[in-house]
Design brief:
18 strands, Metacaspase, globular, Pept_C14_caspase, 6 helices, Peptidase C14 caspase domain-containing protein, Rossmann fold, alpha/beta, eight-stranded mixed beta sheet, cysteine-type endopeptidase activity
């Protein structure tokens, strides 16, 4: 193996600082602990890994309403632009509030909601790369007509230079697990492959992602552009390479955050938020809108909540702040539809 200036077998060089990084079996990218830069591992340099079967803790509950909720504070870990020991305060509260919303508003059974947070003692409930992957497999495994699936992530995101021509902007997006410096981030290519592609006809997946660089983190083929005037239009995001990014007949929707990169929050997430602005706007919009509201009304309500609160404020005695740097909600989908006529059903 001889990548980015060379190195011993099983290592690559960080593209930013040239530090030697060990290649982790099964990983597609690795995050440098020295400079935080994410380097993609070339196909020729990847070490294959047989993925283990989903362990028993993830196999017990199989209702037709299932959810995976992930919140990572990164307590004690060095973050980009922050000193050692700094942590986000919002993600764990995001997960708790989202669980309450799903169980109380949408009737999700508590035993069918998996929470991965970095304050738990059960090693299978820590948001490590392996556990997140197993939880994603659990969520969609054996999905069938009528299933309503929810994936929620609150934490940090990353961008990685694309190497297979399937990104319009030349960058893959990724979510950062708790052990991102050891295992690397989880790329949108993998998230799409694991959670989007297996969705069969009649199965629905809603993903709500509160993280920087998360606008299209499910790699869905269509992005909805909504102007402040209310005019909306679907934009074709299917990759130039021709790679399939759709489902197997089901429907996947991502509600994430958009940032133009000019926000003061974009590169320095707010560590003092006890509830994320993106998650807060989604929960409050769902609660204030009537049941069966359309996606268009939901986005309008979320935008108003984020604008009026300017990324701050309080909710249920929790301080709301914009730790993910998003400026307005973003919608992408596996198929195009009329956002002002289609109801959001979970």
């Amino acid at each position: 193996m001889n990548t980015f200036g060379g190195g011993p077998a099983g290592t690559i060089r960080c593209k930013y600082c040239s530090a030697s990084l060990a290649v982790i079996p099964g990983e597609r990218a690795i995050q440098c602990a020295h400079c935080n830069f994410v380097t993609r591992i070339r196909r020729a340099d990847r070490i294959p890994l047989h993925r283990p079967q989903v362990p028993m803790p993830f196999q017990r509950a199989r209702g037709n309403k299932r959810a995976v909720l992930i919140g990572i504070t990164y307590a004690g870990l060095r973050r980009c632009g922050a000193g050692a020991g700094s942590a986000l305060r919002g993600p764990i509260n995001d997960v708790k509030c989202m669980r309450n919303l799903l169980c109380q508003r949408f009737g999700f059974p508590g035993e069918c909601v998996i929470m991965l947070t970095d304050d738990q003692r059960d090693p299978f409930r820590l948001p490590t790369a392996d556990n997140i992957r197993m939880a994603m497999h659990w969520l969609v495994q054996g999905c069938s007509y009528g299933d309503s699936l929810v994936f929620h992530f609150s934490g940090l995101g990353a961008q990685v230079a694309d190497d297979d021509g399937d990104e319009m902007d030349g960058y893959d997006e990724a979510i950062c697990p708790l052990d991102s410096f050891q295992k690397g981030p989880i790329l949108d290519d993998e998230i799409n492959e694991v959670m989007v592609r297996p969705l069969v006809y009649g199965a629905r997946l809603h993903a709500i992602v509160d993280a920087c660089y998360s606008a299209t983190v499910l790699d869905l083929p269509f992005l909805c552009r909504v102007a402040r005037s209310g005019y909306w239009q679907w934009e074709d995001q299917r990759p130039p390479s021709g790679a399939c990014k759709g489902t197997s007949g089901g429907h996947a929707v991502l509600i994430s955050g958009y940032s133009d990169g000019k926000s003061s929050f974009a590169m320095m997430p707010d560590a003092y938020a006890s509830l994320g602005a993106m998650t807060n706007s989604f929960i409050r919009a769902v609660e204030c809108e009537p049941r069966g509201t359309t996606y268009g009304r939901l986005l309008t309500s979320m935008r108003a909540i984020m604008k009026n609160g300017a990324g701050g404020g309080c909710y249920n005695d929790l301080t709301v702040a914009n730790f993910s740097g998003v400026q307005e909600p973003n919608l992408s989908s596996s198929e195009m539809f009329d956002i002002h006529r289609t109801k959001m059903i979970m």
